Amino acid sequence: VTIGSVTKTVTPEPDGSWMIPLTPAEAAGLSQGLTTITVRNLDSDGEELSAETVEFVVDTEPPTLAITGFSDGAVMNALEQGTDLTISGTTDAENGQSVMVTLNGETYTATVSDGQWSVTVPASDLAALPDGVTVTATAVVSDAAGNPAVQASSSFDTDFIAPNISLDTVAGGSIDLADVANDLVLTGSTSAEDGQTVTVTFEGQTYTGTASGGSWSVTVPHADLAGLSTGTPAAISVAVSDAAGNPAVPTSVSVPVDLTGPSIAISPLSVGADLNLSESGSDLVINGTTGNVPDGQQVNVSLNGQSYTGTVSGGTWSVTVPTADLGALADGSSFTVTADVTDSDGLAAPQASVGVSTDTSPPTLSIDTYSGGAVLNAAEQGTDLTISGSTSAEDGQTVTVSVNGQTYTGTAAGGAWNVNIPAADLGALSDGSTIAVTADVSDAAGNPATQATGSFDTDFTAPAVAITNLSDGAVMNAAEQGTDLTISGTSDAADGTTITVEIIREDGTVDITGTATVNSGTWTYTAIALGGLQDNETYDVTATVNDAAGNSNSATTSFETDFTAPTISVNPLSVGSVLDVVEKDTDLDISGTTTAEDGQTVTVSLGGQNYTATASGGNWQVTVPASDLDALADGGNFTVTASVEDVAGNPISDATTTLATDFRPILGMNAVGPHNAVSLADAKSSGMTVSGTSSGLSAGQTVDVTLNSVSVGTATVAADGTWNLTVPSSAFSAIDAGDSLDFSAAANVSGGTDPLPVNDQAVAHVPAAYVITEAGRSGNTVTFEIHADPDVDISSGFAITAELGFDPSVVTYDTGSEVENGDFNLFLANPNGGSAISFAGAATSYNDLSQPVVTFTMTVQDPTKPIELTVTTPDGGPTKWQIGTDGADNLTSSNIDDVIRGGDGNDTIDLTGAGRDIVVFEADPAANGTDTIAGFTIGPATDVTDALMFSGLDVSTLRGDGTDVETLGVGDAIGANTGFVGLTTTLTDLDADTIATAIEGLSGAQAGDEIYVLATDGTNSVLIKADYSSPVIANVQTVAQFDGLADLTGLNADNILHTDPTGATA
């Protein structure tokens, strides 16, 4: 193996591998740069079998590294501390090598590029550097071979403290004419280093100076001051930075500029424009002011040929004119005062002057009248007082009047004057006093008139009066109205003084007036005619007294009238007139009404106990605890008494009601059969269940049940008090259609009181086999049809046996025949004009049960009465057909199947009877009237389900084909073929407009649609017919009101037959 100049021999290992070591000296002897290794494989004879040469680089020399600079220079100032710092350097390490720089304990990395590198130290890291220190940065790098360079280092100083600078007072604080005549030198101090430049900005121009020993100065040339003007301050600012570049906070000032010349002024004379007599007797001081005149300059003043001198001090001056000189001034003359001054440069100010006249004659003055006269009374004390007088002072001069230590002013006008003394000030005057009045005035020159004086007396004390008693108190009741009212009081007026008494309504009407006389300090008035006093009125009673001076006083009290006794009533008790065993375990509220005032106590007594309530809004209520009810004796009769008095004490009669107690157990029975009817066919085949409830009976107690007084079994009371019994079918074996089913239940309590037996009654119902309909009418002749049940099996033929019953005074039978849809001969029995007709016939073949079986005519004998036709047959239950008149009828269903047609007029129809009832309305609401229906039941088809029918209705005129019946809420979509809607949404009322608004909320309606709608308000229902003029506008006509029909959710097609009472076309 040959490495550079070194050759070594080695024997391979058995696995063919080999290695040779180099000594340190041999390694160090290798040349820098590219070096060759040659390997030759020799055999045992030293012959070369193969050879291979590889190259590698030798690099053991470290790279160079230097820090060449800081972006902030050798010193970092405060501004630079706030920005990032760049540290730069050089190295001969290869491109891409990392240079690690350390500053203040933080390390930053740069990448070598073409011998250059740099790192950025964030301002946030510089913020940690202290002021006034030397900060050292170090840098390290290694070359690609890993040879580390010698660490490089460099440093910079920190200086973060800015210097200060100040400006000395400029030109003594103000720049004047003398200052602008020469160069202006500005001076100041600074902490910046010697040699630092100070920059001064004066009125926009920049001047520089040099800091030296903590001071500086700058000269503004005389020529640069020419632009200054009086009144506009000169703006000056001074700035400097220290050697590190930290700027001082600039100092700025505004120096006043006043370039005006000297001036002088005379202040207003202390005597004003006129010198009066008083002022002429004292020295007159004349003073004034100067401008731009230094202290010490002499001021010369001239008056009436005499000169007086003063000295300027602080811009002011004064001179004194002696009294002797003033006395020499002629009265009624005018004079001019002049003043002159010069400044220190000899510049004279413009002369100042002022005029003055002399007036030394005083005016005249007198007090003439008082608006209150010589004596001021209490009433006059409550209004302003006018004092008048005269004077020779000039118009406009002020007259000063003094009253009771207060001063008031008036103005002279035309030789007269007056002042007003406010009532508020008069209120401070003492009663029974003589009030002195003085008046003063001066003329325009200030000469005072001789003071005028006067006086007036005061008398403010009205006699005292008081109302001490009303014999009827604060409220007069009906009894007191019938007696005299005595009004008593006191007064300190003299005996014999009259007291006027008035009794006054709220509206000011005086109902009673009279007088009383003071006697030894008291007075009494008796009102005897009280019949004219108004009920429920508030009266004021006033007593008025007047003294000789005209002072008046009054006293007032009041009373109310209440001549109407209150009423009281006891509402019906919630338990009725008898308290039972269940009700006694619950508190009983007893309430009522009263006209007594709110807050009055109502006392209720029951069983020796009293209970109290407070009237409020005309109502009252007390609660009798269950414990008190339980204490009432069983089987007793108690009186509940309620009493109250009104505030006035008007008596009333007590209100009473009675309450009996019956605490025996209670036995109840649930309603037997729907609509008071029991399907006889079902009962005969599988019996029926009778059930009920109980209170006060123990579980296990037996209940004996009878049907038509025959025992049908015994039930047992369950833990919840209920009981039930299945009545066997055998109990109905002897019952026929239409029979009454009287169920009774009783319990025999061992060792206790038995409950009262209970019962319920139903009718054994068999569905009608035939239905009568009115087919037509001509005058008094009515055509009727008899229809058979559509479910009859006619596969083997058909037979009829029936009897038609009627009242011949109302209608008589004419003629009849079978319908030609079968082959049987109709047998008619009983003569025409009788009260019954029998129909009989049979056919082995019959075609169509939708067609009538029998058609017959009858003649109306009394059109004022409803027609009633009854069909009885052995094939099924009976049926009745009722037809109303053209007027308003009262029609009542029987305990069999009924078809009732009210016809014209507002009919009242009662459907509470057992059996299935069909109500027939006229298709046209205008022809029907508005009927009132009671007892109508809805639900799925049973033998007793009630139904509605519309006579003369063509269902094709309804929406679609008009055959569907739907229950919908407001907002629901109406079906395509719906002719009848049960509106399940509860409405606020059943007015036509309310119903119209509701059905206009059904979606899917079209213009021209007609539907019938049954709507409810949660208590009753109304049937209407609606015609849609647009999809959202429905015109409504009322057909009938259904009392007590509150819930329409169970309405279905079984309740709406449309046109056929047999149900064939329902």
What would you note in describing this structure?
It is a single chain. The chain is mainly β and 1066 residues long. It folds into nine domains: 2-58, no CATH class; 65-159, Sandwich (Immunoglobulin-like); 165-255, Immunoglobulin-like (Sandwich), CATH 2.60.40; 263-358, Immunoglobulin-like, CATH 2.60.40.10; 365-459, Immunoglobulins (Immunoglobulin-like, Sandwich); 465-562, Immunoglobulin-like; 568-662, Immunoglobulin-like; 666-765, Immunoglobulins (Immunoglobulin-like, Sandwich); and more. The model has no long low-confidence stretch (mean pLDDT 90).
Topology:
Elements (H helix, E strand, L loop, with lengths): L1 E2 L2 E2 L16 H5 L4 E10 L5 E11 L6 E6 L4 E3 H4 L3 E7 L6 E6 L2 E6 L4 E6 L1 H4 L7 E7 L11 E8 L5 E3 L9 H4 L3 E7 L6 E6 L2 E6 L4 E6 L13 E7 L10 E5 L7 E4 L7 E2 L8 E8 L6 E6 L2 E6 L4 E6 L1 H5 L6 E7 L11 E7 L6 E6 L4 E3 H4 L3 E7 L6 E6 L2 E6 L4 E6 L1 H4 L7 E8 L10 E8 L5 E6 L4 E3 H4 L3 E7 L6 E7 L5 E8 L4 E6 L10 E9 L5 E11 L5 E3 L7 E3 L7 E7 L6 E6 L2 E6 L4 E6 L1 H5 L6 E7 L11 E8 L3 E4 L7 E3 H7 L1 E8 L6 E6 L2 E7 L6 E5 L12 E7 L11 E8 L4 E9 L2 E8 L9 E8 L5 E8 L8 E3 L6 E8 L10 E7 L6 E7 L2 E8 L6 E3 L4 E5 ...
Parallel strand pairs: 6-12, 21-27, 29-35, 37-43, 45-51, 53-59, 68-70, 69-71, 70-72, 71-73, 72-74, 73-79, 74-80, 75-76, 76-77
Antiparallel strand pairs: 1-2, 1-3, 3-4, 5-7, 7-10, 8-9, 8-11, 11-12, 13-14, 14-17, 15-16, 15-18, 18-19, 20-22, 22-25, 23-24, 23-26, 26-27, 28-30, 30-33, 31-32, 31-34, 34-35, 36-38, 38-41, 39-40, 39-42, 42-43, 44-46, 46-49, 47-48, 47-50, 50-51, 52-54, 54-57, 55-56, 55-58, 58-59, 60-61, 61-66, ...
